[in-house]
Amino acid sequence: MNDLFNIQFDYPWVFALLPLGGLFAWLRFRKIKQVGIGWKHPVLPNSQKKYPVGFRQRLRWLPNALRALVFLFIVVALARPRGHIGMTEVNREVVDIQLALDISISMKAKDFSPDRLGVSKRIAAEFIEGRPNDRIGLVIFSGESFTQCPATLDHEVLQILLSKIETGMLVDGTAIGAGLGTAVARLKDSESTSKVVILLTDGVNNSGNIAPATAAEIAKTFGVRVYTIGVGKKGSALSPVAMNPNGSLVFGMAPVEIDENLLKDIAAQTGGKYFRAENEQSLKSIFEEIDTLEKTLIQDKEFYVRPDLFWPVVALAALLLLLEWVVRLLWFKSVTEP
Q1: Cβ of 41: how many Cβ atoms within 10 Å?
Q2: Most buried by CB count within 10 Å: which residue of 31, 205, 324, 336?
């Protein structure tokens, strides 16, 4: 009784009152049976003449039945039904993804608005929001690499950590090999058949202790596909060229140098694809294309809580009580009641 129909009751002992309601209903129906079916003339109350049995006379038991149901639901409400907590297994289609994001000083270039890093963060955030079932992590790199967030389904935390990324968090430079190597290391033990790194950079590998070709070979060994994105318009762009003593950046026109051949080789070697983003819209289109990746079915566990049923039961009892009052007033006002 304490878990009837997957509903839990705080005070199951209240159901001991049910026999009283049953006794009351039995006595009422027994009295009706003894009186018999019929009615007295409303003007001549002492008349004992029986009249033909009609629809109302056949249903004279209905008000008492409604009253019994009201009593039943009041007892259920007093037992305080509450939500049932449980756990269920659900199937999810997922891809394990690591975003590897370049945060070198050159990512402050103004060929995107407000700059390359700002746009990359915003579009990456939209990409994460659109894939709620995927385990997504975040690696940042410049002259060295760092795991900002391991692959997780807790995208709220991931979004917070993504929003906090700024240039200058790591030693400056462009260590593409180190960034890719760290991202692959976070995926190598994944059981998913779809393991993906999305590597975004605007420069040429010039630092780090892992060669990009070596990192790509490791990715291929562990079945990790790498999608590479070169960010920056062709030609020249307003970019950081120096730094003032107070730490502020000095901007000037500088050539955009992206090692596209390297990024193409990495993508081709791992079964991925290379993209060039020259503006915000093209970068958004790239993430939309990557969004069509193969997905993997996994089993996950979810907790659920059924709603509190106390007030619905009280409302149902009140509705039945109102119905009983209406039935007695409109249909059975002239019918002799025992």
Answers
A1: 12
A2: 205
Side chain identity at residue 265, one-letter code: D
Q: Give yes or no for a contact between 66 and 323, defined as CB atoms under 8 angstroms apart.
A: yes
Q: How many domains does the chain have?
A: 2
* Angle of helix 176-187 versus helix 212-221 axis, rounded to 10: 20
Q: Concatenated DSSP letters for 231-269? A: ES-SSEEEEEEEE-TTS-EEEEEEE----HHHHHHHHHH
Query: Residue 64: which domain range?
Result: 4-84+306-330
Q: Is 112 helix (H, G, I), strand (E, B) or coil?
A: coil
Mean local confidence (pLDDT), 300-323: 74
- What's the Cα-to-Cα distance from 36 to each of 46, 60, 64, 329, rounded to whole Å? 16, 11, 15, 21
Pairing of strands 195-201, 145-152: unpaired
**What SS3 class is residue 63?**
helix
Predicted local confidence at residue 81, as pLDDT:
78
Instruction: With H, G, I as helix, E, B as strand and everything else as coil, classify residue 326.
Output: helix
3-class SS of residue 154: coil
- CB-CB contact of 127 with 134 (8 Å): no
Asked which of 36-40, 149-153, 214-218 is least confident by mean pLDDT, the reply is 36-40
Q: In whole angstroms, what is the distance from residue 17 CA to residue 235 CA?
A: 86
Write the CB contacts of 215 (distance below 8 Å, at least 6 apart in sequence). 176, 177, 178, 180, 181, 184, 266
Question: In the predicted model, what is the mean pLDDT of residues 53-81?
Answer: 73
Looking at the structure, tell me whether residues 185 and 281 fall in a common domain.
yes
First CA to last CA distance, the chain: 35
Tokens for 112, please give them. Answer: 């995107």
Give 41's DSSP letter.
-
> Do 179 and 127 belong to one domain?
yes
